[in-house]
Amino acid sequence: MSRPGTVGPPQAAAERLLFLMIALQERENRALTDALHDGPMQDITGILLSLASLRRGLPEDTAERIAQIETRLRDTTATLHRPPPPFRPGNSPRQMLELGLTQRVEGVLVERLYISLDIDSSPPVLGEVAVLLATVQLLLQESDPIHQAARALVAIRSSPEGVNLALRVAYAATATQPYAPDLTARASPTSGTPAPAGADGPGPANDAAADEGTPEDIIPRDSAASWLERLRPVAELLGAQLRADSATGAWSAMVRLPRRSARPR
């Protein structure tokens, strides 16, 4: 099932909003990182110093137990460190996309994410990267506001003329693989088969939310026509062309971002 319409760029106002959405996420990430560093991390460092001072005056057996507690506390603290932000100065467009997709899509909107990037010959600029990341997040969120998709492929190709984004999404009962070549952009010639964005470990779907009841404006995924109708306005705003398989529930979206110099005046 396809939706009519030409694949194209988002409207100028929508493109600006997409950029602001990503900028807000970056600002939130910085604020959380600062709060974690200035609060709990400083407190834990103080506790570790106190334990080390206490351990020096204890018998050997007791000191060894305290040392084990210190080690466990350090190991636990290491797990609390937030990952590096996608838009950290010095990151390449590839790093921005890979970090942004793995941190904000995999485990949040889909259980397992595949990434295929063919962008090195004509890399996207900062604004294009932000629009691409926001587009993927919004399409996935609007397609199912409650549950995670089982797996998805984000394939991005760039050229001097523009950037092409293909998003392919499959659900748990879908037999079709998310990286079927006939439904997605061509994989990078240097990367071969798209690789998972991160290690295995899919996050659980939020089934509890469904059991507790859903708002009236949230439509369950039992009707492809229903969720497509909900997704269509957002897709049109983003300039995305939708294609759905009513038999499996899998769907795909394509977006083209022509470069400024290549856009019609």
Mean pLDDT: 78
Radius of gyration: 22 Å
Q: Biggest β-sheet: count, sense, barrel?
A: 6 strands, mixed
Q: Unreliable stretches, pLDDT < 50, 5 or more residues?
A: 1-6, 174-193, 198-222
CATH C-level of the largest domain: Alpha Beta
* CATH architectural category of the largest domain: 2-Layer Sandwich
From the spread of the alpha carbons, the general shape counts as elongated
Number of domains: 2
Helix content: 40-55%
- Total count of strands: 6
Strand content: 15-25%
**Order of strands across the biggest sheet?**
4-1-2-3-6-5
Query: Structural class of the helix and strand makeup?
Result: alpha+beta
Query: What oligomeric state do these chains adopt?
Result: single chain
Order of helices and strands: HHHEHEEEHHEE
Helical stretch tally: 6
Description of the molecule:
Residues 182-208 have a biased composition (Low complexity). This is Signal transduction histidine kinase subgroup 3 dimerisation and phosphoacceptor domain-containing protein. Residues 182-222 are annotated as: Disordered. It comes from Parafrankia colletiae. There is one protein chain. The protein folds into two domains: 12-23 and 86-260, Heat Shock Protein 90 (2-Layer Sandwich); 35-80. The protein has helices at residues 12-55, 60-80, 93-104, 126-143, 207-211, 224-238; strands at residues 110-118, 149-159, 162-170, 195-196, 241-244, 251-258. It is α+β, with helices and mostly antiparallel strands. The longest helix has 44 residues, at 12-55. Mean pLDDT is 78; it is low at 1-6, 174-193 and 198-222. It starts with 11 loop residues before the first helix and ends in a 7-residue tail after the last strand. α1 runs antiparallel to α2 (60-80), α1 (12-55) packs across α4 (126-143) and α3 runs parallel beside α4 (126-143). β5 and β6 form a beta hairpin.
